[in-house]
C-alpha cells in the first residue's frame, strides 16, 4: 500500500513540477513607476528557500518544511523509514556563506537527540551535507569534511501535497 502512495505522490509531484500554467488572473495594476503589479504573485527574494522539500530513497522518505526570515531558518523535518524507526522534530539555524547551518531537534525510538545538518542551495534543491561527525551527550555535530552531492538532494515540492505528513 505504501508503494502505491509513494508512486501516486511522486507522479503528482512530477506533474506539478512540469506544469507550465500560470496563476495570472488578469487583475494586474500598474504602479506609479510603470511596473506591473499582479496581486497573485508572492514577492519573495530569488534566494528565498521557504517551502517544502522531499527526498525519496527506496521506501524511505525525508521531508523538510522551511520558513526563511532573512538569514534565519526554522521549520520541521521528518524521516519516515520503511521497517525502521523514523524521526521527527524541528529545525532551526542560519545561513552562512550560502550554506544553511541548521540544528535538527528530534525524537526517535523514544529518545531525544539533536543533530547538526547542513544544506547547500542548488537550483531549487537543497543538497544535504555529509561529513565526519562527533557526539557529545545527545548532540551530534560536524567536525570536518562536509561534502554535498545530488545523492543527498531534497527537491522542492508543493506543501499542500504533503501537509498530512508535516503534522508532528
Summarize the structure.
This protein is mainly beta. The chain has helices spanning 2-18, 159-162; strands at 29-30, 36-37, 51-57, 60-69, 72-80, 87-96, 99-108, 111-122, 125-136, 139-157.
SSE layout and pairing:
Layout: H1 2-18, E1 29-30, E2 36-37, E3 51-57, E4 60-69, E5 72-80, E6 87-96, E7 99-108, E8 111-122, E9 125-136, E10 139-157, H2 159-162
Parallel strand pairs: 8-10
Antiparallel strand pairs: 1-2, 3-4, 3-10, 4-5, 5-6, 6-7, 7-8, 8-9, 9-10
Structure description:
With 168 residues, the chain is mainly β. The chain has two helices and ten strands, in the order H-E-E-E-E-E-E-E-E-E-E-H. A hairpin with a 2-residue loop joins strand 3 (51-57) and strand 4 (60-69). The relative contact order is 0.16. The model is unreliable at 1-33 and 35-46 (pLDDT under 50).
Amino acid at each position: 500500500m505504501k508503494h502505491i502512495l509513494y508512486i501516486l505522490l511522486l507522479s503528482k509531484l512530477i506533474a506539478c513540477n512540469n506544469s507550465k500554467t500560470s496563476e495570472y488572473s488578469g487583475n494586474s495594476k500598474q504602479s506609479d513607476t510603470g511596473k506591473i503589479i499582479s496581486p497573485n504573485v508572492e514577492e519573495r527574494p530569488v534566494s528565498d528557500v521557504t517551502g517544502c522539500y522531499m527526498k525519496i530513497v527506496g521506501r524511505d522518505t525525508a521531508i523538510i518544511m522551511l520558513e526563511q526570515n532573512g538569514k534565519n531558518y526554522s521549520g520541521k523535518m521528518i524521516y519516515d523509514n520503511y521497517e525502521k524507526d523514523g524521526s521527527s522534530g524541528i529545525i532551526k539555524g542560519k545561513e552562512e556563506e550560502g550554506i544553511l547551518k541548521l540544528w535538527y531537534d528530534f525524537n526517535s525510538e523514544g529518545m531525544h537527540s539533536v543533530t547538526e545538518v547542513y544544506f547547500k542551495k542548488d537550483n531549487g534543491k537543497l543538497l544535504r551535507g555529509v561529513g565526519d561527525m562527533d557526539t557529545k551527550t545527545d548532540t551530534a555535530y560536524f567536525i570536518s569534511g562536509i561534502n554535498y552531492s545530488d545523492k543527498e538532494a531534497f527537491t522542492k515540492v508543493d506543501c499542500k501535497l504533503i501537509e498530512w505528513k508535516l503534522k508532528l
